[in-house]
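Record 1 of the preview.
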Amino acid sequence: MGTLVKFELKKLFNKKMNIIVIIVCLFLITLLFSMAGKDFLATDKSGKSYKGKEAISVRKEQMKEISGTLTNEKIIKEIEKLQELHNDPNNLITNSDGEKDFSIEIYNEYLNNRLDLLTNINRVYANYNTSYITELFNLNLKEQKDFYETRQQRIEEKLNQSYDGKKYTPQEKEYWLEKSNNTKTPFEYDSYYGYSNLYSTYELLIFGVIAICICLASVFAGEYQNGTDKILLTTKYGKSKGVTAKIIASYIFATLVFTIYLIFAIGTIFLMFGTDGGNLPIQLSNILSPYALTFFQSLLYNIVISYTVLFGMVGLTLFLSSKLKNPMTVLVIDIAIIMLPVFLSIKSAFGILNKILFLMPYNAIYSNFSQMVSYKLGNIVIDLPMMTIITYIFMMVIALICAKKTYSKHQVE
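->
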């Protein structure tokens, strides 16, 4: 068996088209991930602009001013300072919408390094659907309760809302509230630019999955097309060990190539931004996230998800390759399945179509752990990341069984 696997691996790695696809995709991934650092912008207190590595250093230095434990006292002080600045007419201008807003000087001196923090505070104390800090300007601080208790209330409010007439079931509400209660508070706040920029580009690894599917589309279909199936299927082990060797070699090939893509993608981001913030809670990027994970833990989770999506798509590709006689047809179907969600928007966490779209490869390869998407099987509630893993493992197993049976039963013409 080992000899057969090595033979099949050699075929995959020696194929000129595969080599070209792997190299081109590696270049594309490195280029796309490096753009996050090259295009990174920052402005210092004097209004001077920076780009690239200089901008990253400036932003990290600015973050030191507000880093530390997010206690209730610290949060209240931040709001008080914001309101003090907003109550001074000299700090305001009229924007293009005819509304009062801070001047560019105030943005440079105060808001640049605080906007994300204040936006998250605003989502807890005022409006969890907002992406700005407007409601904090006139917030009555005397009426505000503990920040973390209020955060939990906001999550509960979201769980009680109706979306197009659909609601979370009692079991789902209990599941998400319990999950959120497990988060450790108070949160630590510091820079996490490496992780935030990695997550903003992580889904681009889907190009790596597509490249691997291109390379594997001809594993069986190529044999049909070239007529070599007539030889392989009539040999002693052609319908047993021969098929198994092709499958094992395909997964070894896929794992090695995707690992290279992952190393270059993650390495490119961390070389530019550093690995700071791995121990910080993911709530810094979305304060209402119910997951008790650090950025580093969420990255490990996403890597596991990525591999299961890859393995599921490899299984599907091998099945299609065993069923169809043209590798191009296999590839067209693969790309259609992978890229379909690009053209279909997800409107909510409810409805069969939305829940299927969440599990499609383009959406599934990455989770930001911010949405409360759950799947209820009887009395069991499964969250989206875990459902993704289960779905693609199941998909892989079924597809491989079908691929082996289909190729073994193929009638040589």
